Amino acid sequence: MGVAALRLGTNLRGGMRLGAQARLIHSGKVTRDIATTTAALKKRDPVPHLSGTKLDPSESFLTGSNAFVIEEMYEKYMDNPEKVHPSWAGFFQNVENGLPPGQAVGLSRQSRNQVSMVPHVMTEGKDLFQVAEDTVKLMSMIRAYRHRGHFIADLDPLRIDDEAGESNTYQPPHNTKNELLPSHYGFTEADLDREFVVGAELPGPPVRTLRDIMSTLRKAYCGKVGIEYRHMLSKAEKDWIASQVESKFDTDFTREFTREQKLSIMSDLIDSEYFEKFLSMKYSTAKRFGLEGGESIIPGLKTMMLHGSEIGVQNVVIGMAHRGRLNVLANIVGKDLVQILYEFKPHPDPDLENYLGSGDVKYHLGVSNSLKLSNGHTINFSLLANPSHLEAVDPVVVGKTRAKQFFNDDKERRRTLGLLIHGDASFAGQGVVAETLELSDLRDYTTGGTVHVIVNNQIGFTTDPRAARSSPYPTDVAKTVGVPIFHVNGDDVEAVVRVCRMAVEYRQRFRKDVVVDVFCYRRHGHNELDQATFTQPLMYRKIKSHPTPVEVYTQRLVDEGTATRQELKQMEEDEWNHLQKAFKDSADHVPAGGDYLDKQWEMFKSNKELSIPQTTGVSEKVLHSIGNAYTKIPPWFKIHPLLKKILSERREQIELGTGIDWANAEALAFGTILKQEEITVRLSGQDCERGTFSQRHMVWHDQDSGAVYTSLNNLGGKQARLQIANSNLSEMAVLGFEQGFSLEHPNALVMWEAQFGDFANGAQVILDTFIAAGERKWRRQSGIVLLLPHGYEGQGPEHSSARMERYLQMVDGDADKFPTEFEASTMIQKANLQICNASTPANYFHVLRRQVCREFRKPLILLTPKSLLRHPQCRSSIKDFGADTSFQTVIDDPDPSVVKGKNVKRLAFCSGKLYYDLVRERTVRNQNDIRFIRVEQLAPFPFFEIRDVIAQYPKAEVRWVQEESKNMGSWSYVRPHFETTLHHLKDNRKIAYIGRLPSAAPATGNANQHQQEVRNLMEDTFSY
To answer: Fewer beta carbons within 10 Å, N or C terminal of the chain?
Structure first.
């Protein structure tokens, strides 16, 4: 605006200086402290009539930010009135004579410089100040259109807002329409054909009539597309968007597409609409969650893929909820139409037996497919399966996208694109959307931009927008990360196509998220069997009589002479015949097992294919080599003195072969996986670089420069890469991200660490729907590891329990059946989860390596210690990591002073950190007839190992001892497994519980009570 106003000043008598003065005098908002600003009139009496009064707009002459200009001018004027322009001299003289600022600039017409050097059509009846003022007002109007034009854009196909008192959507501020009228800025009908200098403010000629300017702005911002982008921080991005949307309407926008392009759009629209019509006719009683009412999204997505492929996109990872999913599978991803129709019928699924799975409804299933597009380019699609928790798939898609970029070395992040298709109610209502958006520009989580497409039904299940959100649009949450939002009327398929093309171009150009909000409607209710008129009678009365998108576009093409009705009718008949043929072929279709699995998983075994156990131990030579390398400090690096001491101690532990602590074992595990197995390791979580308990220190910070150094990425020679990613303060989105990362490629150890174990509560949807049940429902393996700090050390209810009972409850093993030896050997391969509570650094080392050394992948819930990180007894010898060692699921009491065989009075089974507390108490009591057996792997339950231990001590009582309350921890899970084991042994002994009483809270927050509970636990354990 300022540039144009100054440019105008150069064309006026008085030159640039006068134009600038006019801009200052007439610029908008007035500072309320004019007296201070013109203390200007420093040495003279202040302007008394301004004191304590509120300035009205007629007295506006200066913005506070420009106050210094008037002061400088006044000083020059005081020194010599001839040093300033005559207009300034007149202004100061008027102020000194007591006139208000507004009147001080109101010089008589006779005393003003008259405009005489510009075309008459620009200035008829106008003088210098009026032209300058009109230019400023024009620029304000242009700004208003760019900021608020979307509020009055024609977005709703149903135009429900036209019904007085019946609107169910957000209403713009009452004065918005007025702000976009020329009259609001003082322009009249007579001004419409006046010419104004707009320069570079608008594309096209630098001098244009007001009528032409208004036409461009209305078409760009108030037509079928409404754009929100002025909230963005980047000027370059805003300028690019403005140039794109404003230049489109510099000529007749109906000529934007050629006849061939319009017919192609119509073909895609017919494919979309007739797919839904066909399914409706053939399967009228089936839930499909069809796209009816939003069919134009398919041509939009098709264009996005075509144009994206031309500007670098090779892979697209898609996540979406139910609505329109089958349509996207058929018309975008390229899933075989015969297969889709086949799945509507009751049918056997060979993969379910192979994966011991449950399967899922068809509108949840995913697919991977490589598709050659009409432009000759190929795109590899991955449509992720997802649960009914609509937006939970968002971070999973983003994580898989990032992993695909990582494994394809797509450092610029242009070849792989994440595409999320949302519903309006869920996008506004579910917090994981905001969490996922916040990952968009974080170093270790960015994917170079996700394209978000909103299927804006203008309704939730049965809830109107006014009850579903507190913001004008469902997309307002995206403003938090400063990305553009394109709203578009779904009945205008060309507008949808145009916006989708612009969205993918923006993403590729600026590598940031972008949102396309397609206003449409649901022709049926929540699903095809729902009766929507119960709650939305007005909306569905309109929908019933509203033409379909194909009918709307047909009329448009016929009216503008692009095509005849007969031509378009033939296109519809051809598509219908195509669908009929696919339906006929589906009757004889025989699906092939394992269709659509990603190629990198082909060599990994399913649940029913026997996997040979692999070794996890490593030679001492390799351990020494990695230990020396990862503790080596470069000579140029200024390391923290305390960290230098820690690294020195770790190197000494490895050299001596004794006293290896938890963090050292973890580093050795990572190092051997990176170097020996050449498998990447990714660890993510809040503060995981250093470790919540200041134990890890895998990323070092130079104490002078702040530079960072990761020694495990500098082991020497060929190795895979370690990624240590400090996350934002999110659980659900970050865990979902890591789950998505783990789904992309089997050759990665992907780990998420909670700050404290029970913080995983915030990610429960990801745990329940993706991690615990994902393989059963969707045949997708994941080797993700959850590190959940756990242990009762008196830190209160939110920092004690990792809530292991919740994970154990989700395990699908049968507690009532003792397995055969073969079943026991394959149990972990067939299980849905592994849950371990390792108590030694060596066992932690082995369980991590076991994750990547097998021929299958399985999620691992790993309870990790807090106090044990520095416990002097929680140490391992280097021999425990050696080539002939492996993970121990059960560890018998190693203390040689404890009695054996029939002399043992009590077998106390326990897990994790509690073992060390019990051993310490046993030493204090000198009571050596009780043995403590550690169960390191709780699930799958180690039946044979437990059986063998129990059989060695036939006279001992069998007890389960735990820190957690009776209604928590592992007691409810292990009890039936122990009973089955004892029954198998034909042993009449019963297992009993020792531990805290049932409780609502996981732990007490009172230190005295905690200590008393510990004393009670010890007393119960040693009293028999």
So the answer is: C
State phi, psi for 949 to the nearest 5 degrees: -70, -50
Topology of domain 893-1022 in CATH is Rossmann fold (3.40.50)
- Write the burial class of residue 116 (CB in 10 Å: 0-12 exposed, 13-18 middle, 19+ buried): exposed
Mean pLDDT by 10 residues, the chain (1024 residues): 31 31 33 36 36 32 43 71 69 69 48 48 68 88 93 88 49 73 90 88 88 92 95 94 81 71 96 92 79 92 97 96 90 91 75 61 75 95 88 96 96 97 88 95 96 87 70 91 96 96 97 96 68 71 86 96 95 95 88 62 78 89 96 96 96 96 97 96 95 94 95 95 95 96 94 93 93 88 95 92 96 94 90 96 97 94 95 96 95 95 95 96 95 98 97 96 96 98 96 96 93 95 92
How far is residue 773's CA from residue 766's CA, in Å, rounded to a whole number?
10
Rg (CA), the chain: 36
* Of 868, 870, 864, 916, residue with least CA distance to 891: 916
300, 394, 396, 432, 753 from 391: Cα distances, Å:
21, 6, 10, 7, 22
Q: Are 612 and 855 in contact (CB under 8 A)?
A: yes
Identify the helix (H) or strand (E) that includes residue 380: strand 378-383
DSSP state of 209: E
User: What residue ranges do the domains of the chain occupy?
Assistant: 2-166+179-205, 257-599, 620-790+837-881, 893-1022
Q: What is the dihedral of CA 473, 478, 483, 487, to 10 degrees?
A: -20
> What is the C-alpha separation between 436 and 430, in angstroms, rounded?
11
Please state the pTM of the whole predicted model. 0.85
Task: Give the E-state strand segments of 584-732 in sequence order.
Answer: 680-685, 700-701, 708-709, 722-726
Reduced to 3 states (helix: H, G, I; strand: E, B; else coil), residue 616 is: coil
Degrees (nearest 5) of the Cα angle 132, 136, 139? 140
Among all chains, which residue has been given the structure tokens 């033939």? 570
Backbone φ and ψ of 24, nearest 5°: -65, -45
Protein fold of 620-790+837-881: Rossmann fold (3.40.50)
Separation between Cα atoms, residue 323 and residue 279, nearest integer Å: 14
Q: Do domains 257-599 and 893-1022 have the same CATH topology?
A: yes
- Residue 195: name the closest of 220, 216, 213 by CA: 213
Number of residues written out for the chain:
1024
Q: Classify burial at 11, counting beta carbons within 10 Å of its beta carbon; exposed 0-12, middle 13-18, buried 19 or more.
A: middle
- Distance CA(384)–CA(320), nearest Å, equals 8
Burial of 427 (0-12, 13-18, 19+ CB in 10 A): buried
CA distance 137 to 554: 42
3-class state of residue 488 by DSSP: strand
